[in-house]
Amino acid sequence: MLKDATMPIFSPDRHAYAPSYVKLTKQPIAGGTYRPLANDEDSNACAPSALSGHHGSKLYTQKSAIHATSDNTSIFISGAGTLPCLPEMVSSGSVSKAEIDNNEQIASSELQPHQPAEQPLNQVVSVCKRAAHTTAKTLSTAGHTAVKATKVTGHAIHTAATAVKNAWHTFINFKAVQLIIKFFRKAYGPWKKRMRFSYAFYAIVFTLLTSAEVIFLQWGMYSEPTYDKGDEVDQTTKILNSVAGQVTKFVSQMWLEQKYQFLLSLFALAIIYLVFIFVTNRFWIATLLFGILFTIYGTADNIKMGLRNEPIIPADLSFVTGGDSGKLLSFIPEESQSFVNSVITVLAWFICCCIVFFIIDGRRSFIYCSWKRPFASIKNFTGTLTRIVAAIASIALLCSYSWNLSIPGSWAYSFAGSLGYTPSLFDTKIDAQTNGPVTTFLSLAKTKVIEKPKDYNRDTMTQIAEKYSQQAISINNNRQNDLTDSTVVMILSETFSDPTRIPGISFSTDPIPNIHAIKDTTTSGLMLSSGYGGGTANMEYQALTGLSLSIFDDSLIIPFQQLVPNQKNPYAFNQIWNNRYGADGSDAVHPYYQSMYLRNVDYKKFGFSHLRTLDSTPSIKHKDTIDYSPYVSDEEAYKNIIDLIEKQKHPQFLQLSTMQNHMPYTNWYIDNEFVGADTSTGLSADEYQNLETYTKGLNLTDQATASFLDELNQIDKPITVIFYGDHLPSIYSTADQDTENHVALHETDYFIWSNSASASSGTKLDASNTAFTSPNYFMSLAANHMNAKVSPYLALLTQLLEQIPAASRIATETGGISSGDTTYLDMSGNQISKKSLSKDAKQLLRDYELVQYDMTAGKGYLNNTDFTKVQ
Fold first, then answer.
1. pLDDT at 603 over 70
2. H or E segment at 34?
3. Parallel, antiparallel, or unpaired: how do β-strands 719-725 and 487-493 relate?
4. For a FRET experiment, which of 112, 166, 811, 865 has its CA 20 to 30 Å from that of 853?
5. Residues 6 or more apart in contact with residue 377 via CB below 8 angstroms
6. What tens digit of pLDDT does each residue of 234-258 get?
7. Which helix (H) or strand (E) holds 537?
8. Is-contact 493 699, C-beta < 8 A?
9. Separation of alpha carbons 661 and 675, rounded Å
10. Rounded to whole angstroms, how far apart are CA atoms 218 and 246?
11. 66 — phi, psi (to 5°)?
12. Where are the alpha helices (DSSP H) in 113-242?
């Protein structure tokens, strides 16, 4: 109970520093008055909230003077007045006795003005003590919680383990289980001492499997010959020309002709086999991996040879690494499906045999080693060191062999040459049939872009830039238009070529009447393609860049995969429009998948704003197919081009590579009138089916192209179209056997056409300048057709076209041209040799080679000139 009050009460609202206190004896409160300590006239100083809101409910007196002066405090001096609110609050219970006592002590402490001030250090220590106490309490609580959770978890685990243990003991106590356990205990001893296969047995397996894979791979390089009904061929010739006969010859020529290509292939596979063995150190695991890998490789090789007339090369691996392996499977023709199923069956048995041998063979490590204790004994140290050295040596040998195989004068080249190696990389089919597909593959592992010309230097390239700059000025004096004033659409039509030009092929109905009519009224002719059955990306590359595949090194097979991805700033003609209109000066459409031939990488490097495909962002809008065909129709592909033309206000360069007529040809179309119109003779049943499906596709392309050009005529913008087929399909197996047909099997159709809004509408250049050409000349031909000004680079191509109308790297033995030489055609389509070229033609060709080297593998001296700039 509160009776008297003889001491003042200090009521602070806040302090800059917290004072220290000692507890004193309570004094009675008799009365008193408030004396302000600061300029605070708060009339509610005696309210309960004002009393209880200060530093606690206990009364303390000041131990030492307070240095900080409160900005809102007051003091009650006993006897000087009354505090009527306190008895009422105490009696009513609104303020506890402890709170009153606390306020009395605070008030008392404030009446000690002359006490020394407490140092801030004591206050900091006090705060730290409280913080440490709080932290310790928190950690203690957390610790107790963690311990409790651990105990609960441990108890649960112990309970579960006990249950499992009891169940296990119950299970093994069954008599049947006990009998099984006893049996295996007795059998473990003999099993542990089971026989280890000898290294001699390993050597036999090694030799047999390697030889079998070489023969299997070589078997896939050949195809069965076909004969006309009237041909008189003796049985011996048929046997020798069969696949079995050609494979037998490949092996037996070691004794008959002293050609050891079989041993060369055996050596290459043996190195790879040893790498698997020494790296895994498990003979049967290595055997399993080696067998599976090369059986799959041989199967894929066989299918690709049938479809594309070429084996698998290192550049093809980008399809797998790029995630396109599933798309490649869609190219497998129906006639190859039974072969694939047989291979899968053989592989299943092979895998089972390897697993059985692995289980029963007591030898685990091919070379004894101990990774855990390599220095425990001489045996451990020697074995571990031997395994490391063997693995490194085998890998180094494989890398060195494949790296040097295509370099004349190297140890690998000399070694292979001593066994009969004669590289023919200009045609991978010939090379694989002659030297084996593995040797061909390894020969292409290192790509040489182009041979460096002897006189290549900065001065030479500066002179060439100046020379053709003057030529461009001379040409442009007679031309009035600019290329970039028109939209140019370059269309690569998949496998488009008139089939009736092939000997033995005929139809009662013209498959492509519209395009024949178009070719009669505009600039047109035949294009010499380097591919047969494949090579789309190569034609695409040459048409876009003006560079010729015939100048590159033989080991450079596909520039889209082997060259362009490694270039910093590759040149392409679309950049002419980009230089004038910016990044959206060019666009591209390919109605398939963007990563095929690494187009997504290449088109970005060329500077196209987009490559619009089925899986791009943005993707193509129009992508319907026809009947059972898996590919986007040409009609739909053209719609995507129309959209781009109508969307863009300024002229642009547009590239389209179609897919409708891509192989395989498996009777896709429901209503195929060319089945009855086929009057071809001397073909096999497969040839007839493929030809009729393919020809129906050509007819659909013919109709779609005519409609497309009609739509372009309705657009009030100058537009020029460059249309060409990239190569023939590999369906003419009968004609392909006659070497006289090799050039005909590499000729496709092309035309250059301008719509009615163009100044060049209705233009048809003289056939003496257009009858035959190569894809690298298309842009210079288009500039001539459009009467448009050219760059120094286009001036070089324009003059080169006049001297050498067509040039391509194809394999042929007709007309005295040996296999592998570049095939040159005059404007009449006749083959000409390089030696027979005029002096001016040879100089132009030399300048062209220097330019191509500088733009692809050289130092890019021309980049610092206006060589590619239209003047």
1. yes
2. strand 32-36
3. parallel
4. 811
5. none
6. 788 888 888 899 999 999 999 888 8
7. helix 536-545
8. no
9. 17
10. 9
11. -95, 125
12. 120-172, 175-192, 199-219, 235-241
